[in-house]
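Comment on the following before class.
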Amino acid sequence: MMKGVHIEANHCLDGVLLNHDAIWLGARNTDMTEVDKIQGLITNILVGKVYLEVPSPTTDLMKAGLLDSITLVELIVGIEEQFGIQVPLEEIEIEHFRSVEAIADFVSSYLARESGKQV
């Protein structure tokens, strides 16, 4: 049996769902991986909520001067709203938020860990 991660989403923008429509990541074989889908959602948060254009998923947001303390808080709030999670303060490490790729990895592992707790 394939396991998946349930994400709530609202709108669809270029094939990426945003808040309130349910999607399952990892439950189907598709061209996009779970992390790719999460990267798309993170990019949408950065563009739509934080108003940042990120050149690539591997761009270092700190070195590029795109992410400061205010935008980091806005990003975390956007992630919590998008994925229906609450990131504990002790889990907020700057390395988790250096790039879209790192953020997606963090969110993916957080969701996997949380889904493992649910029975």
Summary: The chain has three helices and two strands. The first strand starts at residue 5 and ends at 13. The domain at 31-117 is CATH 1.10.1200.10 (Non-ribosomal Peptide Synthetase Peptidyl Carrier Protein; Chain A).
